[in-house]
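Researcher: Quick test of sequence recovery. Tokens follow.
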């Protein structure tokens, strides 16, 4: 079977759905392809139960989908999923690859929108001996809650938003919890981030950084004796330069200060059985390791002609704000490390650009369809 469509969107998460919504408003036919069995699977299946949006709702609304009145400022994961599916109901077709039969479908599209996300795959670092670890280990995208690990020794690797929140959650579930903090990190509260994001609209980033660091110091004091040190560069300058976000504390720091969560430096190797050796020479036994070590793009696994748009890491070659448009009718939504706010921006620009191209008939008649390969 082969079908011709104007736009194919690969990925049915927030970025893919937002782009489809914008295209629908412009009456541009499009199809969303999703490898999972539902839309927004990251939010349904691969995020922990206790997650709320970290950013205030005014920074997380998708195009044409304002949150209903009465939605809390920090939207619970469940409400976010529902607001994504509401608009979507009956209006977007999400095709599921049926792995139970050998049937395959081919679409030929004038435009391709890559919306498979910066979180396409969980990233687990290479650690000597990990293959022989006798306990259980997993990426943070498989962690839902700590119910199974009451009284067990659990190590969380990574001190970003996921790592700190999962460590806190595990400790609440009664696991004997430790966390590996290898990098310098800015610890802030979500209220500080919310204020900062409003101030960033009219103040320079350096000023906002100074304020946030001041507030953080007032709240947390000097955390270096607990193994946490602050980067020299401010939290939002770092975000702009590296894409790395400050860590929003949900209660982990308090538990670290009380000794309820133990801090370790980087993992050096995994020795026999369940024994983990750290870079300072300490050795401890753990039943479970949760790797909150981030994600990587999966674009190179399925997009053969990626060079029209992406580099070898599967991230856009052009930097923000020009990242969303490639050559030969390829676009990407959700690759600017600006979360849902960046996704809204991308979706609007992409749909407007496709609309313009269609109306001015700039589409080359010899347009060669991009090669999609399955992983
Ligand atoms: C734990 C966590 C919390 C976050 N909290 C916030 C927050 O509070 N505020 C905020 O603004 N941002 C937040 N983000 C960042 C970002 O907004 C989310 O990651 C968001 O889901 C990104 O949307 P997306 O559509 O780009 O990617 P995804 O939600 O990852 O969607 C990509 C989709 O593509 C599908 N797919 C992948 N490969 C293929 C393929 N080959 N074929 C077909 N389909 C494919 C996937 O199954 C998935 O459905 C958070 C991220 C994480 C991980
Ligand atoms: C809890 O974990 C720490 C760090 O691994 C370990 O030193 C301690 O013995 C553990 N406590 C119990 C009761 O197992
Ligand atoms: C924090 O404390 C450590 C010693 O515990 C000290 O070396 C460091 O200078 C302090 N940092 C600040 C910003 O005061």
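Model:
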């Amino acid at each position: 079977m082969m079908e011709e469509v104007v736009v194919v969107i690969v990925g049915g998460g927030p970025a893919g759905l937002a782009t489809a919504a914008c295209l629908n408003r412009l009456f541009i036919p499009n199809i969303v392809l999703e490898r999972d069995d539902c839309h927004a699977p990251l939010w349904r299946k691969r995020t922990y139960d206790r997650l709320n949006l970290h950013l205030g709702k005014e920074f997380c609304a998708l195009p044409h989908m304002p949150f209903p009145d009465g939605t809390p400022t920090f939207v619970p994961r469940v409400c976010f999923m529902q607001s994504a599916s509401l608009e979507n109901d009956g209006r977007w077709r999400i095709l599921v690859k049926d792995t139970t039969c050998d049937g395959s479908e081919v679409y030929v599209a004038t435009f391709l929108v890559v919306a498979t996300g910066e979180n396409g795959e969980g990233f687990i670092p290479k650690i000597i001996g990990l293959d022989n670890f006798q306990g259980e280990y997993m990426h943070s995208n498989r962690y839902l809650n700590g119910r199974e690990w009451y009284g067990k020794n659990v190590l969380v690797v990574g001190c970003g938003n996921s790592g700190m929140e999962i460590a806190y959650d595990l400790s609440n579930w009664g696991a004997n919890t430790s966390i590996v903090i290898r990098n310098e990190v800015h610890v802030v509260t979500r209220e500080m981030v919310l204020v900062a994001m409003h101030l960033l609209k009219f103040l320079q980033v350096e000023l906002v950084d100074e304020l946030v660091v001041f507030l953080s110091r007032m709240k947390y004091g000097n955390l270096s004796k607990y193994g946490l040190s602050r980067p020299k560069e401010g939290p939002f300058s770092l975000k702009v330069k590296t894409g790395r976000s400050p860590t929003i504390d949900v209660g982990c720091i308090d538990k670290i200060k009380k000794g309820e969560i133990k801090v370790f430096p980087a993992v050096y190797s995994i020795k026999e059985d369940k024994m983990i050796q750290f870079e300072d020479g300490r050795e401890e036994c753990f039943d479970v390791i949760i790797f909150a070590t981030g994600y990587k793009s999966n674009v190179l696994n399925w997009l053969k002609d990626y060079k029209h748009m992406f580099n070898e890491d599967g991230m856009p070659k052009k930097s923000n704000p020009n990242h969303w448009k490639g050559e030969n009718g390829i676009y990407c939504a959700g690759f600017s490390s600006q979360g849902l706010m960046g996704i809204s921006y991308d979706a609007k620009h992409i749909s407007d650009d496709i609309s313009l191209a269609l109306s001015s008939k700039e589409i080359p008649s010899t347009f060669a369809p991009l090669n999609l390969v399955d992983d």
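The chain has two domains: 2-120+295-358, 123-291.
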